[in-house]
From TrEMBL:
Domain CARD: 1-92
InterPro entries xrefs: CARD (IPR001315), DEATH-like_dom_sf (IPR011029)
Official protein name in the record: Caspase-1-A
Coiled-coil region: none
Superkingdom per UniProt: Eukaryota
Gene: LOC108265809
Source species: Ictalurus punctatus (Channel catfish)
GO biological process, one term: regulation of apoptotic process
Amino acid sequence: MAQELLRARLGLIQGVSDGLLKDLTDCLRATNPPVLNEREVNEILQAHAVTQDRTGRLVDMVRNKGDQASFIMISVLEQRDNLLARNLGLLTDCIEEARMNRWDRSSNP
């Protein structure tokens, strides 16, 4: 999933509004266990003045936490802005299906 976030990074930077960014950070902080802690959310929201910079920092931070954190972010994005997720190819069902198809092809030469 981290690879999918990397692939969609530019589209996320261009497509995420300030309101959606705040929704994403709130949801990622509210998961159990939290994907982001309070300090990380403050770093994202206060360290950068431009929404695009904040979004890039969020994507990088979550991606560096691995596939599980990336999957959670993609799931939250899907719930909060399904159109953006769809346009970027970040629908969890489609990603899982593509991963299984790649796995099937690699295990059956």
